[in-house]
Records
---
Amino acid sequence: MKRLTDNINSRYFEAADKLLPSKRRGRIVAFVESYDDVSFWRLLLDEFETEEHYFQIMLPNRGGLTKGKKSALRSCIEHKGLGKGLIACVDSDYDWLLQGTTQTSREIISSPYVIQTYTYAIENYQCWAGSLHQICVQCTLNDHRLIDFNAFMELYSKAVYPLFVWNVWFYRKKLHNNFSMQDLSLDIRLKSVDVYHPQVTLASVTERVNHRVRWMENHYPEAIPEVTELRKELTAMGVREDNTYLFLQGHHLVENVILKLLTPVCATLRQERENEIRRFAVHNQQYRNEISAYQHSQMSLPEAIRKNTHYRECELYERMRNDVREFLVMLPETGSENKQDTEDLKSADQHQEC
């Protein structure tokens, strides 16, 4: 006995829309990996909804709770279901950087019906350097700029870039057990940040990276020419020394870099604001009232990062926009009829009855 999910594909959704009144907008279903991804992709796809079509974001496994990229692609690509009525929106992870050296990578970079982040994950967009100050303001209600986050993340990226390229090389060679993302994360994490001397933290990261790169060159001398060529290839793809952090593992970036950076910054900004309230309060009761109101108005740092939407000026976000535009160009003109689509829908419904 077949399930309905065995017959859901792009042609099913296209055919379903043919049975709706002609004045209704065409529906394009977008499968995403998890609940956390829904708001991110809704923000992007909202820009492209018109009077002719709209997007409906869904999780791929309606009969279970399995989530993730493999689940989304398995439900779509392996059943040849992607098409003009059904797309997949997924994190790139390393698959874009691997450029077809794995099956998942080939599926993602070859299909016009897969919209990928290009960054490692949506968390990387939420940690975009240009939005970090807004995050601090949300958390502290203090607009004082203690650190130039753009400059800090650029210098951090340049510091970790050499080791990052080695990590990508190992994954392309399918030797990731020799130097995994977890190993990379240990070498490039921020241990502590002095908000008044952040250069000390960057110097520590640079020292650790240089030590590990020398170790790599001594133990894998035959790989040095390939790693040099990989640098050139990555540069052509837009992976530069100054934006490396966008391609690091998303969870690592949040936990071991951004939170380590923003936590002391926010603590200092909150202290500044509380000192200001104490200084201007006329009496103790007013001070307590103001402090209480201030503390209740703050947002936690992890929540502010998760809800951050100030990343849409990131250059890689524009690349996603271009992918959506190219997909929409392939859509049929409004009002065109396709008898085969309707037959596909009826056939799928018959399988459901079985």
---
Amino acid sequence: MKKAAAWLLAGCMLLGLSACSVKENQVFVQKVADLAQMGGIAPTDRFSGLVVSESVTEIQRDKDKVVDTLYVREGDDVTQGQELFSYDTDQLQLTLEKQKLELEQLASSIENYGIQIAQLEKDRERAGSGDKLKYTLQIQTNQIDLKEAELKLKTKQSEVQKSEHLLANALVTSPVDGRVTSISEDETDEYGKPKAYITIQQSGSYRVKGTLNEMQRGSIMEGTRLRMESRLDPTQYWMGTVTLVDYENPTQGNNNGYYISSGSDEMSSSSRYPFYVELDSSDGLLLGQHLYLSVASEEEVSLEGVTLGSAFICFDEEGNSYVWAESSQGKLEKRTVELGEYDMAQDVYEILSGLAETDYVAFPDEELCVEGAPTSRQTQKGGSGQ
């Protein structure tokens, strides 16, 4: 990972050393407080975000029916019960009348089959032994036709009930309060997935949506802390955490206003991946508001107390965490530490116990870091640690 490489550079290359460098068999150690001040390497890209609702309601359209009147437009705010669109009732009425006529015909056929079967059974009783088989075959044929007609009758009854329901509900209303974000006449999207006719972002709890293109994959991850500034007032900002990077549902096309690149637009036609930010607080935000997004600075990270880069932390077979620390005798020791929260933006862990800012730790190396190894706070060039 880039952040692990960053800590490797911070722990070794920036000080002119390789990991766990040795001077006269001494393992180099660094002060925890100094490592914390180095911070991590975070993406410098600036993104554009849009305040959306956590809840989205999709209104489907019956593909077999014709929309007569559309009462809303994209961007309209709607309330629960407000009219959205209506179906063509003339067509619905004609369909219903046709279905009822077919239903009557099927009922009449069933009645006739019953009469015919009863008459054939009487005729068979009076017929001679040579003719009974003929009547039996006719009765069986009518019985099969009767069963088919009964099945068709049940299907047609369901169709009539559906048409009556549609006719009674030809006017479609909004089930929620919110904003109409899209109206689509297409039944499927560019990937062949079913597409809603009307999409409504529900009023209430908000989150922020941004997008990544192929070049930014990995620069924003679940758990990344972001700062979101107002476009009108840079002093007004909100903090939040990325909860989802949706690589399963990419979109194709131009930037759509979701990314501000510091370079060229060569990726403008690449796939784009939405990500969502859970807000610490949504006070003052409006649905549909545009924001500038950036990775939170070290001062804005919520971790408190002692912190240490993840590259310095090891785990044993039981999953217990430890570091290679300098003991009071100037020897290397494997010290158990208790981890708190993890800040992905800075790639650091909060250390709850086992380590203080005044302690010294070594960058782990399987060959050089052993219990009892002598430690050194000096670089190969003769500099001293703080």
---
Amino acid sequence: MTKAEIATEIAKTTGIDKTTVVNVIEQFMAVVKESLAHGENVYLRGFGSFIVKQRAKKTARNINKNTTLIVPAHNIPAFKPANVFMDEVAKN
């Protein structure tokens, strides 16, 4: 399902025009990205959590050039679904 399909579905069920729904979805994504960029996790009860995971520094190999390089420690975004969410998906 794409963002446009989600917006269409929400617009149909709520009666709100699609452009407003798209703006709300865009703003939601912007707030989540901004929060994660500042190291803050986002918790949506009953849905899941958008969290920041830390990756440790590691050594990687370039097999084409037969060299090694150091990949510095860095943060990556992740999503952890709530138990209710996982149970609902497992039913189907």
---
Amino acid sequence: MRRKSHEVRIGKLYIGGNHPVAVQSMTTCSTMDTQGCIDQCMRIIDAGADLVRLTTQGTREAENLRNIKEGLSQRGYGDIPLCADVHFNPAVADVAATIVEKVRINPGNYVDPARQFKHLEYTDEEYAHELKRLDERFCHLMGICRRHGTAIRIGVNHGSLSDRIMSRYGDTPEGIVESCMEFLRICEREKFPDVVVSIKASNTVVMVQSVRLLCQEMEKEGMDYPLHLGVTEAGEGEDGRLKSAVGIGSLLVDGIGDTIRVSLSEEPECEIPVARAILQAARVQMCKPEFISCPGCGRTLYDLQDTIRRIKAAVGERAKTNPRYNTLKIAIMGCIVNGPGEMADADYGYVGAARGKVSLYRGKACVEKNIPEDEAVERLLLLIDGDGE
């Protein structure tokens, strides 16, 4: 069951509630490079993103978001919301909030100074004074966001906790969560619900533990803010994909998560298909046909690998023109031993029956027996097409 969260409007996009898990990515070029950002945004959106984030280092970059936004609108991409990624300078967030649909701030450096990795000793009175400074500055941003209909992302990074938090809570999931909860309590008091929350770490164990702890703490305090999931600095290639799948997928299968970003050291549009694949593997959203296949063994009665390739290609072609194919789970099994039982979750099955013979299944029921292997793929497609009429 999916974790309960309230919906947050970000332009024309809704995150949380019963809305589909949104997929996002982030540009990598300078935000002063207007055309470069427009081009990257279009590639990201064309790959299937629901939101695009841009780094916003200073007020010049914040102001230039207007030009990027206008350029995207002129090219027919105006419906996809933009998020400004702000660190260290709260005044930049104020400007960006008047231009784009969402602003990300990092609790570790929004009001607290940049980390110097020093242990600081605070009396309770001094600590409360620092929280008051945070409160006043954050309320100013919320006022701007309220007037402009701008959402906020409170994005905690394990690697950028403030010296203040580290000194009192240490480098722990409890400290990571408290860094976030300080801001959320202000949102609750001020009745500002348009907030998405993230806790990220490059360590998948820390990320998963911290997000689960955050969910517990929010529930204790009656909060249901939607969650953004991601493993930050996941890497590139197989490493980045595996770490992201483990961290994001572990939470998705428990019903946790309302939007995701896969952080890869690659072109940003490469992140989107990985995110979609993770959503599908976690059975959160079906966006393409799913294939269940055994590894093969001495009982396999046909060329399993070649058959998988042929079925994938044939089904993929059908899916281009028939959306129903994108909802299907198709099992390809080498023999009857692993057939009906192991493919019980599939909509259709292709199972070796005898040397050169194949049986076809609809769910657990065998509907065609001992078909010649050279006819079986086409017969499978005919079975699927016939059920869809």
